[in-house]
């Protein structure tokens, strides 16, 4: 896969110790409060009755969001077309082939979702797969001065896909904003747990088991895609998709301890980070998962009053043009335990660059109160992390580069000198996280 990325010169300047300029870190702690619970009303709630037939339980969601699910799928198609459009049909077929291998209830639910939304089973399956492999995020669990636990997350999605030059935003991020829904999962007539998902996606990306625990999943780069491939080719391998493990833990476990045990041991198809929150004191952990078990766990303790995770390992440097970890910590330290609550964590996650052009939604959770609120986000210009991807436009291997201000075509990216990029557009060419 192509590893060339372009970054605004201002971002590079920061790496040299200068300011990022208008794209810089902007912690909103101490500024006017941006949290307004009423803003969460635009994310619709649905009931999914787990006692109902899996083939029909998603009918309402599928029927009311079919068009928008198709629009999101179109952005996946656009992305695949950057490589080769003919792969798309193959991938849909490939995804359809794997559906019978899915564990229940997901297997039956995908069939039901396809029927209700008007898409093919392969298309719904492909979309679900894309959610598994392409996401960024910031998750935080924090304790207030009385030992009460709060959990918040930004879901970033769609970066590196397709930049809409007119609207100055990621095309897929935009499409996904129409798909964010909250769900009450009902069992025996009562709410068993609550979750946030994209309509058409049967897993849970963020969720809360009231009086139990809260969870969010972040992507870990460098995924083991062979495992996913194996799943489709060899059938059930006893390993779980990350997105379904989330929903499974919310279904099966009722306490923080049970959830911790499950999340550190469940065999996975791909690595990832589970961020787990509980009810009080030290119940907050970032579990760094490999396919076979936990590779590292960060837990809150007497002195460590919060855990924060983006998309980089505890012992690895961040890619400097995507440093959401450093600014996140700075902002949390400004917040302090005395300001930890839903509004405080929302303020941190509204601070750039934790809020960025790829942020689809923010959710805040409070287990003891059973609270889950989700907010659609929009990062106003100037807003950072607008990465660009070299885009192959024709058989001659000529490429188009979208920048914040212009579009450039070049014949052979290999031959482009850093200086040309600099003088031509104010953008740099980087490879593997280094300035080329
Ligand atoms: C950008 O978004 C607008 C509004 O959705 C759309 O009309 C336009 O076609 C998009 N541009 C590209 C290049 O996709
Ligand atoms: C608390 O956690 C931090 C961060 O993981 C660690 O550096 C520190 O040693 C821990 N302190 C105690 C008392 O365990
Ligand atoms: C490839 O380059 C040749 C020579 O410049 C040109 O005639 C041809 O149209 C190009 N092909 C495409 C698909 O752009």
TrEMBL record:
Gene3D superfamilies: Penicillin V Acylase, Chain A. Residues 1-17 form the signal peptide. Keywords: Disulfide bond, Glycoprotein, Hydrolase, Lipid metabolism, Lysosome, Secreted, Signal, Sphingolipid metabolism, Zymogen. GO terms for molecular function: fatty acid amide hydrolase activity; N-acylsphingosine amidohydrolase activity. One of its GO terms (cellular component) is membrane. The keyword Disulfide bond applies. Its main location: other. It comes from the Eukaryota. The active site is at residue 137. InterPro entries: Acid_ceramidase-like, Acid_ceramidase_N, CBAH/NAAA_C, Ntn_hydrolases_N. It comes from Caenorhabditis auriculariae. It holds the Pfam family CBAH. This is Acid ceramidase. Residues 42-95 form the Acid ceramidase N-terminal domain. Belongs to the acid ceramidase family. One of its GO terms (biological process) is fatty acid metabolic process. Pathway: Sphingolipid metabolism; Lipid metabolism; sphingolipid metabolism. Residues 137-279 form the Choloylglycine hydrolase/NAAA C-terminal domain. Its EC number is 3.5.1.23. It is found in: Lysosome; Secreted.
């Amino acid at each position: 896969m192509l590893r060339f990325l372009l970054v605004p010169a201002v971002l590079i300047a920061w790496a040299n110790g200068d300011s990022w300029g208008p794209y810089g870190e902007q912690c909103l702690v101490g500024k006017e409060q941006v949290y307004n619970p009423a803003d969460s009303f635009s994310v619709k709630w649905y009931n999914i009755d787990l006692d109902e037939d899996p083939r029909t339980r998603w009918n309402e969601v599928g029927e009311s969001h079919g068009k928008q699910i198709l629009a999101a799928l179109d952005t996946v198609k656009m992305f695949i077309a950057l490589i080769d459009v003919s792969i798309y049909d193959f991938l849909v077929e490939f995804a359809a082939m794997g559906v019978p291998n899915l564990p229940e209830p997901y297997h039956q639910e995908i069939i039901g979702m396809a029927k209700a939304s008007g898409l093919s089973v392969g298309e719904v399956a492909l979309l679900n797969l894309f959610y598994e492999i392409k996401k960024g995020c910031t998750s935080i669990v924090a304790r207030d001065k009385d030992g009460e636990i709060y959990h918040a997350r930004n879901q970033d999605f769609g970066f590196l896909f397709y930049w809409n030059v007119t609207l100055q935003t990621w095309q897929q991020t935009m499409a996904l904003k129409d798909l964010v829904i909250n769900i009450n999962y009902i069992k025996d007539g009562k709410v068993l747990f609550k979750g946030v998902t994209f309509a058409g996606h049967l897993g849970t990306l963020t969720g809360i088991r009231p009086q139990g625990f809260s969870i969010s999943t972040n992507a870990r780069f460098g995924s083991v895609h062979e495992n996913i491939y194996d799943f489709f080719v060899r059938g059930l391998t006893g390993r779980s998709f990350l997105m379904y493990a989330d929903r499974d833990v919310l279904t099966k476990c009722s306490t923080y301890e049970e959830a911790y045990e499950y999340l550190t041991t469940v065999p996975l198809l791909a690595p990832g980070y589970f961020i787990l929150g509980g009810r009080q004191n030290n119940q907050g952990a970032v579990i760094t998962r490999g396919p076979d078990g936990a590779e590292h766990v960060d837990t809150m303790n007497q002195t460590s009053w919060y855990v924060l995770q983006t998309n980089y390992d505890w012992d690895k440097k961040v890619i400097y043009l995507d440093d959401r970890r450093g600014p996140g910590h700075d902002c949390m330290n400004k917040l302090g335990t005395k300001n930890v609550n839903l509004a405080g964590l929302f303020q941190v996650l509204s601070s750039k660059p934790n809020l960025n052009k790829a942020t689809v939604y923010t959710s805040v959770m409070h287990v003891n109160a059973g609270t889950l609120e989700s907010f659609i986000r929009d990062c106003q210009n100037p807003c950072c992390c607008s990465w660009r991807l070299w885009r192959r436009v024709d058989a001659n291997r000529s490429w188009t580069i979208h920048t914040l201000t212009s579009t450039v075509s070049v014949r052979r990216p290999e031959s482009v000198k850093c200086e040309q990029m600099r003088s031509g557009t104010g953008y740099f060419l980087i490879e593997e996280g280094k300035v080329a």
